[in-house]
Structure formats: C-alpha cells, structure tokens
C-alpha cells in the first residue's frame, strides 16, 4: 500500500490539471484583489440609478447620487480592507475609459452649429472663469488643487470635468467630493433660476440657450434649463454645452503640461500626461466621420454614464467627511463666486457681443 502511494505521488501532474490549478489561483487572486471592490462600487452605482428614478431625486444625476451614497456608506459602515484594490481600479481605470467614451456624444459638426460667434463666447467664458476661479482661490487661501477642481467643474462640464482634471492634478478624494458637491449645488440653482431670468434680461430663445449652455455646470442641468424656455433654446443650449465639453481636452492637456513642469518630486517622477484626452479627441473625430447606428450610440452613452457613476461612487467611498469639514467654507465661497462670475460674464457677452 505504501509503495502504491509513493508511485502515485511520483506520477507527474498532467498539463490539464496544472492549467486548472493555475486558473483557480488566478481566480482566487482576482477575488482577493479587485473583484470585491468592484462589486461594492457596482452596488453603490445601482443604488444611485434607482434613487435617480425616485420622485424628488430626479434633479440629480446618478453620478452625484453615487458620490453621496458612497460617502455615507464608507463613513457610517466603514470601508472593507479587501475592497480597496477594486475601488482604486474603478476610480482610475474605469473613469479614464468612460471619459474616452464621452467622445461619442460629440461631433465637430455639432460645435459649428452655434456659429463662430457662439464658439467664441463659450471659449472666452470658459477661459475667463477658470482663470478667475484659480486666482480668487489663491487670494482667499483655498488649496490650489481644490481651486482647480472647482474652476474646471464650473467652467467646463461639472463632475466629468472635475474627474478628468483630478487625473492630472492629483488632488485628494475629499477635494473631489467637495468640488462635486459645490458644483452640484450651484448648478442646480442655475438650472431652476436661469429660465426665470430670461424675460427679465430680454433674452430670446437663441440668446437664452447660448447663455445657459455657456454658463450652467452639468450637461443634464443645461438641458433641463434650456428646454424650459422652448425647443430652440434647448437645442442651442445643448450645442453650446457640448462645445464646452469638447474644450475639456485642451484644458486638461494644458493642466497636465503645467503639472509636469511644476513637479518637484525628488524621485524625478512626473504627473502622467493625459493619454485618455488624446483618445477622447480621436473618438470625437471618428464620431464626426462615421455614422454610428442609433442603438449602438445609445449603448455607448449608457456604458459611459455607468462607468462615470462607478468612478464617482469609488471616490465617495474613499472620502472622509472629517476631511470635508476641515476644508471649511472658503471653497464653498469660491464655488459661489465662480457661479456668479460665469453667469454674469457669459450674459454680458451674449447681450453685447
């Protein structure tokens, strides 16, 4: 009997058995690595999409709700240690890929829809707002990276711009959460209040749409405000807003170059160049040249929204409320000042240029 056991042990393991064992090992490694975190992020994302369909929450995008849900979960229940790798994966890889997919929502033809003057108004408003916000942040003592996030969210496209900007600025997760919360607050105020101001300022549908698209923060907020004043206003607002989104690429590239030049890391490491922005521009070009079937286009848009929501859920999961409180009211004052500036500056251009 003993000799039989020794003989069995001496028989080499078959290639199939070895492959199965290696496969099980990889699965175990994945489960102990990123899968638990991705599952948790997916659950938070599902909650955010479900809450978005509840009366009273429809004003807020799933991305915003995911940040809030993730922050509440981690600060009330705590963050499991075995989920951290998957959360980091969702925050970095999924977000980059989602931003690339956003390019399928744009074409260069759409940008030309508001005319050269409209593009000029959007570009001038974006640049002036970004510079104003960063300068004021420095003046009142707001952390430079947080000020850049608020500047990007106000001047370009809300949460998506904050996420893209943070990839090259490397701010803390609490800063990202703070910036998203502030931008959501004032963007919602603009969405509800700006349509009421159109008759006060004597704006026709085209002028109001251009003003809304050039100044309101989130894409969904722009659409909500624009169509309240008519279909022409809604279409003009959407095109103007998409023009701002297209300007995300050069803005993030410029910030990436500035970050590399300003890096003082003793190890010589520099912040990464935003390759995903180059891919974003390439996708916009592809979308401009090739007619993508509507069903595929809708599927891509949904995939981008889900991945963006997962990325922001991951950020919420890593946000520390005590860190948010430590930022005080100055960043909120900065976001409010940026909100007032972009609204007034863009209105001045629409009325008098």
What does this structure look like?
With 353 residues, the protein is mainly α. The protein has helices at residues 2-10, 15-32, 35-52, 62-76, 84-101, 108-111, 115-140, 144-169, 173-197, 205-215, 219-226, 231-246, 248-262, 275-289, 294-317, 321-326, 330-352. Helix 11 (219-226) packs antiparallel against helix 12 (231-246). The protein starts with a helix and ends with a helix. The relative contact order is 0.16. The model is unreliable at 266-272 (pLDDT under 50).
What is the chain-wise order of helices and strands? HHHHHHHHHHHHHHHHH
What share of residues is helical? over 70%
Shape: globular
DSSP strand tally: 0
Oligomer: single chain
* Ends distance: 98 Å
**Cα-based radius of gyration, to the nearest Å:** 24 Å
Summed over residues and divided by their number, the pLDDT gives a mean of 81
Number of helices: 17
Q: What is the structural class?
A: mainly alpha
Largest sheet: none
**Uncertain residue ranges:** 266-272
Bin the strand percentage: under 5%
Quick structural summary:
The chain has 353 residues and is mostly helical. The protein has helices at residues 2-10, 15-32, 35-52, 62-76, 84-101, 108-111, 115-140, 144-169, 173-197, 205-215, 219-226, 231-246, 248-262, 275-289, 294-317, 321-326, 330-352. The longest helix has 26 residues, at 115-140.
List the main descriptive attributes of the protein structure presented here.
353 residues, mainly alpha, 17 helices, globular
